[in-house]
Amino acid sequence: MATSAKQHIFMTGAHGYIGSVITEFAIAEGYTVTGLSRSETSDAKLRSLVATPVRGDISTYDVLTRESANADIVIHLAGTWRDHPDNYSEVVREDGLAVDAIVKGLKGSGKPFLVTSGTLATAPNPNGGETSESSPLREKPLNDRIASERYALSKAAENVNVVAMRLAPYVYGRAGSTIRLLMVFASNSGEVTYVDEGSVKITTVHVEDAARAYLLAAKKGRAGEAYNVTYETDVTFRQLSEAMGQVLGLPVYSRSLEEMVNAGWIEFLVKFISTESRGSNAKAKKELGWEPKGKGILEEVTLGSYVELAKGLKPAALKEAFVFSSKIS
User: Which Pfam family, just one, is annotated for this protein (predicted)?
Assistant: First the structure.
């Protein structure tokens, strides 16, 4: 459905995994999109999506301010986690400066400003149930991404229509993201591995459903609020591992945390795959009118986009770097 009036979106991370799908769907709805771009490769990706690239990154504050002032909606997805894999406090600091620059262009306008966070910041429900956006936070989170969310949401007090989108830790679909990396790693190691019983429940969302949620939040999100962008909460990591093992034709093993770290797994990644997460999407469904439509994660792995990926994975030929960092939250 086209928008009633042609509106313009400025987006950081518009050429990335989630951002490119948001851009695709926004263009289809009748929006125009300008995306922040650091390279000619990113320029080409944006143009292929019928978006307009603008050169800069989240430290080019004048560009962030100008483009935000010229937009009807701003969506912030980019971060500097790749530049500081071992220093997340620097990621938080740099993100805060980028938010300040965007807010400078938006202040007092009432235009929607969507920032990106994650549901892993929330502590598990002690009774095993789902958690909500108002549930207690973890005392020791995997990273300090929630600090970026809190800072951005504080700008609502300055008459900025800021909304936080808390993504599920397992965004999947279109053969990308975390599942792709796990499958590459498994193919290189010759096995799929989960921690201990693999019984921790994970939270998932299809990338196309996530993209739709962002566009709905731009229309209906309430200033100063966070929304869980989640779908399934009953899948265990063991089930996911078995699905990956099935499509890759690899054995699936249980290992202890210590065994996995000693075998060369990044400690952050081991903690990530062994962390319980059950984030409810009730608020997003009620307030945004959002309804997830994509395949479930197990079906997507065994019958969907990851089937072709699995066919192309050859351990000796793979040169894809497996760099897992605190971007995941």
Answer: Epimerase
Give dist(CA 152, CA 164) in Å, integer. Answer: 8
d(CA 209, CA 228): 12
Angle at 76 between CA 70 and CA 79, to 5 degrees: 130
Q: According to DSSP H, which parts of the chain are helical?
A: 17-29, 40-48, 61-70, 88-106, 145-154, 177-189, 207-220, 237-248, 257-262, 267-273, 282-288, 297-303, 306-312
DSSP 8-state class, residue 122:
B
CATH number, domain containing residue 251: 3.90.25
Q: What is the pTM of this model?
A: 0.92
The pLDDT of residue 2 is 45
Q: What is the gyration radius of the CA atoms in the chain, in angstroms? A: 19
The ranges of the chain with pLDDT < 70 are 1-5, 80-87, 314-329
- pLDDT at position 81, please? 61
Within this chain, do residues 27 and 123 fall inside the same structural domain, yes or no? yes
Give dist(CA 226, CA 171) in Å, integer.
18
Assess whether 211 and 243 both reside in one domain: no
pLDDT score, position 89: 82
Residue 120 structural domain: 8-168+206-229
Could you tell me if 203 and 118 are in contact, meaning their C-beta atoms sit under 8 angstroms apart?
A: no
CB 279 within 8 A of CB 119: yes
